[in-house]
């Protein structure tokens, strides 16, 4: 499960590229060393053959001529070219006939001209008794024309050396180099995998902490190693400082919101109570009663706004502060739909429900009921007379789906995200009562329940889809 993800890490790919580049460079260096070693062995053998040939052709009297009979006798007497050493020597005439030496005939692949050449040990010119081994290897020979002889009777001397040991050494070195190259490549891959795994471990720790932060736990911090202090730790330190600042700002904002709501709710409630008591006094004049009625309505709107702000603040504080329990989403939808059926009928609207399938979720019934109440209230408020509202629940994979659609004035597609912000009201809804907090409270509630919310066009109107995680083991 981890290997494919490991292969996709940047650290592993960089390590793989470095290992590949290092392996190619190592292969080039080893190839140069290998061929240099082979050339060095060939040169040393060639130098030995040149020395042997010079010794063979050196006249006894110090002159420059060569007596064929004397040369033949010298070839027979040379002990350096015995069977145990694997030496090759031959004297041939212009036609290639062997005059002296240990070859059967002149090798077919060796031209009669000055220089060095190679031919296979299994050539028919070499008698089997002269071969050091039966396996395949080459013979390096040095060919020289005898000086001072007429061109028609030119003679050729060939001296050579079997390369069995030298080729064994070259094969051993080559195999050793291949093994070293494979070992270096394997160690590079293993090092890349280990470094990639170490990086993944740190990334997983950071991702786990980031998920907790995204779920609302602003006290969570990215892990920092006390002694290592690599680039991940430096980034984590900076992000932790940023999170500390964000947490302080969020805490201050929540405290301000809570303090304002709590400080004003009590005096506003007392004011509303006094106004209601005053309205019960029939001795007041009618104009005063009208003013008092308007004041009560205004105060009720203010209290509703503060209660909504408190609900949003509670939902955004994180699920650990909200008691959750198993809830049947379909039952909640039926209850809320029945509650709003009378309001829909008063507005001459058709409210259709299809909430029959039990869908168990983990949540807070009060928050969910408030969110659904806001949605139904908006649907009734913004749907013209004769319109239709549908409320359905269904199971979609591992989610419980709630879909609320209406045939109202709708929401422009470019405003789908904007409408969930606090105190946002579209131009088409500014002449209708409201405070712009309903959808903000819905979004905060759905996020607190680890759910998702989506808007789409209903042609006319709008469809709102809510997805909440299903639970299967609790009833």
Question: Key terms for this structure?
Answer:
475 residues, alpha+beta, Helix Hairpins, Heat Shock Protein 90, 3 domains, five-stranded antiparallel sheet, five-stranded mixed sheet, 9 helices
Helix content: 40-55%
Question: Structural class of the secondary elements?
Answer: alpha+beta
Strand order of the largest sheet: 2-1-5-4-3
Characterize the largest beta sheet: strand count, sense, and whether it forms a barrel: 5 strands, antiparallel
- N-to-C order of helices and strands: HHHEEEEEHHHEHEEHEEHEE
Are there runs of 5+ residues with pLDDT below 50, and where?
none
Count of strand segments: 12
Radius of gyration: 49 Å
How many DSSP helices?
A: 9
Mean pLDDT: 79
Task: Categorize the overall geometry.
Answer: rod-shaped
């Amino acid at each position: 499960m981890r290997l494919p993800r490991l292969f996709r890490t940047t650290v592993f790919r960089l390590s793989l590229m470095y290992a590949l580049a290092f392996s190619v460079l190592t292969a080039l260096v080893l190839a140069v060393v290998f061929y240099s070693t082979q050339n060095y062995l060939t040169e040393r053998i060639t130098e030995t053959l040149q020395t042997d040939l010079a010794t063979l052709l050196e006249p006894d009297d110090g002159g420059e001529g060569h007596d064929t009979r004397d040369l033949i006798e010298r070839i027979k007497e040379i002990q350096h070219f015995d069977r145990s050493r694997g030496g090759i020597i031959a004297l041939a005439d212009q036609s290639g006939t062997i005059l002296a030496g240990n070859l059967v005939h002149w090798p077919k692949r060796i031209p009669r001209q000055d220089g060095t050449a190679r031919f296979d040990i299994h050539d028919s010119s070499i008698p089997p008794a002269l071969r050091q081994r039966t396996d395949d290897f080459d013979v390096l020979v040095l060919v020289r024309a005898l000086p001072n002889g007429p061109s028609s009777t030119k003679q050729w001397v060939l001296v050579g050396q079997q390369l069995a040991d030298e080729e064994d050494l070259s094969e051993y070195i080559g195999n050793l180099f291949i093994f070293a190259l494979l070992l270096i490549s394997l160690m590079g891959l293993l090092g890349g995998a280990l470094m990639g795994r170490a990086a993944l471990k740190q990334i997983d720790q950071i991702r786990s902490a980031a998920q907790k932060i995204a779920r609302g736990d602003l006290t969570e911090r990215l892990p920092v190693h006390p002694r290592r202090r690599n680039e991940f730790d430096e980034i984590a330190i900076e992000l932790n400082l940023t999170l500390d600042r964000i947490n302080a700002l969020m805490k201050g904002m929540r405290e301000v919101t809570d303090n304002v709501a709590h400080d004003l709710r009590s005096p506003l409630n007392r004011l509303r109570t006094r106004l209601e008591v005053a309205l019960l006094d029939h001795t007041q004049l009618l104009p005063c009663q009208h003013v008092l009625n308007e004041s009560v309505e205004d105060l009720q709107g203010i209290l509703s706004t503060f209660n909504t702000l408190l609900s949003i603040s509670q939902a955004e504080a994180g699920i650990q502060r909200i008691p959750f329990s198993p809830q049947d989403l379909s039952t909640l939808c039926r209850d809320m739909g029945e509650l709003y059926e009378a309001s829909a009928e008063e507005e001459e609207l058709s409210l259709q429900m299809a909430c029959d399938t039990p869908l168990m979720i983990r949540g807070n019934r009060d928050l969910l009921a408030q969110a659904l109440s806001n949605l139904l209230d908006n649907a009734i408020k913004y749907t013209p007379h004769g319109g239709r509202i549908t409320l359905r629940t269904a199971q979609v994979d591992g989610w419980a789906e709630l879909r609320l659609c209406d045939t109202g004035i709708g929401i422009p597609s470019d405003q789908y995200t904007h409408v969930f912000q606090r105190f946002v009201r579209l131009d088409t809804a500014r002449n209708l009562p409201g405070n712009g907090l309903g959808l903000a409270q819905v979004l905060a509630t759905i996020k607190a329940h680890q759910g998702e919310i989506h808007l789409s066009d209903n042609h006319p109107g709008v469809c709102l889809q809510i997805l909440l995680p299903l639970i299967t083991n609790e009833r």
